[in-house]
Amino acid sequence: MSNALVDMFRMQDIRKKVLITFGLLIVTRIGTFIPIPGINPTAVLNYFEAYSNSFTEYLNFFSGGAFNNYSLFMLGVMPYISTQIIIQLLMLVIPSLKKLSQDPQGAKKIQQYTRYGTIVVCILQSLATTVYARSIPGALTMSPVAFTLVAIVSVTAGSMLLVWIGEKITQFGVGNGISLLIFAGIIARIPSATVTMVESIKAGTLNPFALVLVVIMFILVVALVVYEEKGQRKIPVHYAKRVVGRKMYGSQSSFIPFKINPSGVIPVIFASALLSFPLQIAYNSQIGWLQSVANFLDPQGAPYLIIYTLLIVAFAFFYTQVSLNPVEMAKNIRDNGGSIPGVRNEKLEEYLTKVLNRIVLPGSLFLAFIALIPTLIQMFFDFPREIAMLFGGTSLIIMVGVDLETMRQLDSLMKMHHHDGFVDVKKRKVKKI
User: Fold this and answer.
1) φ, ψ (nearest 5 deg) of residue 213
2) Stated pTM of the model
3) Does residue 253 sit in helix, strand or coil?
4) Is the pLDDT of residue 25 over 80?
5) For the chain, which terminal residue's Cβ has fewer other Cβ atoms within 10 angstroms, N or C?
6) What Rg do the C-alpha atoms of the chain give, in angstroms?
7) 66: closest CA among 149, 186, 205?
8) Could you write out the DSSP letters of every residue in 101-130?
9) Bridge-based pairing state of the strands 252-259 and 338-339
10) Cα separation, 341 vs 235, whole angstroms
């Protein structure tokens, strides 16, 4: 592992990608501490320390601590993810939009539409946060009207800057930029959660025995998540002999690797983003029915947990069908003269769809179970909310999933230079001295 790390920094192109990624992530962490113009950060922090609840902790969790600071990045990248979900759903309803996305130039237009939609979502959510700020005593240092205008522009610009940074990490760095931004926000909160945990033990509000049990459960769940991420169902494919020009190619055998969890952390992120959008608009609203919506979608309540679980399962099926289209896969197999043993060619789509559904269902249920762990920990062990959200659930899935995906990308980059990677490290020959 240490040798692989040294080799990684010896190669100029990989070193450049890693340094760009770290540099941009540092910029995003600095932005979480820059408050919106017209806000009193001391009054806001004192208010959240005294009146913290499940909703504010939920938003603070996904913004990497930026929400409680009322910083430029307080909305994080959730508006962008929410817009992506809306665009993906519109593709199912509008065939012309689906056809446009399949063209390379059309995909760029879809990306533009997503950015424009993100701006609209940011304006709506930032407007809701300004209403919330007015209810905090001593929070505003300017008139409410001026603060509303400044806050909408500042927060929208901050979220769009995060989206731009995420795209640059994907383009010039290592890993998926948007996922890494969420990953960095979760990691950055671990030190403060550790301090809270130590203080709770000293104060006697947290049982050390319960903490040991939760840590053991945490390790077991991490192992299960890693095992699930690496689990595959291999579909054998045989290709007959082909004549191309004057050359004859012999028959070949291959396989299609279907992961147990093909969509990775996407369903959890999508479900969280979709639920956070109405919560941000409805919370602390003076309108009666919006307040009822906020109370109904309390992150600690049964309705929220049920909807959250159903959304994870639904997005797992949805994203899998979009990313692994059985119709396209069957068409490619037939066009290349391939076949699956025991399956007739005209039944390939039906067979592949059936296999995918059987794989995705248990995988999505496993994701949903892990996502509910923080609430279960709080209910049975009376854990502080900040610690519970880091010891399992969404944070655990994102941390493990993003880490594995980034390591795989680094592995592939290193193997291109004929070096051992991090995941599949070969045995090195030890020279005798």
Assistant:
1) -60, -40
2) 0.77
3) strand
4) yes
5) C
6) 24
7) 186
8) HTSHHHHHHHHHHHHHHHHHHHHHHHHHHH
9) unpaired
10) 9
